[in-house]
Design goal:
This protein is of the alpha+beta class and 172 residues long. The protein has two domains: 75 residues, Alpha-Beta Plaits; 82 residues, Alpha-Beta Plaits, CATH 3.30.70.1150. Helix content is 33%, strand content 42%. The strands form two sheets. A four-stranded antiparallel β-sheet has the order 2-3-1-4, covered by helices on one side. A hairpin with a 5-residue loop joins strand 2 and strand 3.
């Protein structure tokens, strides 16, 4: 049985108008569901790097990689799924309608999740606290689950993850 699991791809693409639409269009045309997609310029102005997360089985994932490799604008496809990588996801979590004791609890939770400055208080109001988090997707999920279990009203905004191969695998 072919098991569905979260897969990660990095793409180097030409930094041109319409490339993002073409890549995302490939996914929608084939009914592949993107979990996340981030894109930004690299050290070269004419090249962007996309980090894509998709839930897929082995056969579907191989098809995705082949179809991406066939696109003219795609310079390189890297399967990050099994490589050692450094990966972080940006998340903002706003905890609303809290009193002083609730704020203190949010600060304590942030302190527990803080790993090297990865969770900070970005803003504070009379009855709310805004956390900025750059953790792994799994740790961000755990933080959100904890906040949801402890507080009545939270708002969450997430960006997709960005990833880079470990030096041991990429600088050879």
């Amino acid at each position: 049985m072919n098991k569905m699991k979260n897969r990660w791809i990095a793409l180097y693409v030409e930094n041109q108008v319409g490339v993002l639409a073409k890549v995302s269009g490939l996914f929608s045309a084939k009914s592949y569901n993107l979990q996340s997609l981030t894109v930004g310029k690299t050290e070269r102005d004419d090249v962007s790097r996309m980090t894509i997360s998709v839930m897929a089985d082995d056969v579907t994932f191989e098809q995705i990689k082949k179809q991406l490799n066939a696109m003219i604008e795609v310079i390189k496809v890297i399967d990050l799924t099994t490589l050692p990588v450094h990966m972080k996801e940006l998340l903002y979590a706003k905890v609303c309608n809290v009193d002083a004791a609730g704020k203190e609890e949010v600060f304590q939770i942030a302190q527990v999740f803080n790993q090297g400055g990865n969770v900070t208080v970005a803003d504070i109001g009379a009855d709310s606290v805004l956390l900025q988090c750059t953790l792994t997707s799994r740790r961000n999920n755990e933080l959100v689950d904890l906040l949801k279990s402890r507080f009545k009203k939270i708002e969450v905004v997430r960006g997709g993850a960005v990833a880079i191969e470990s030096i041991s695998t990429s600088c050879r």
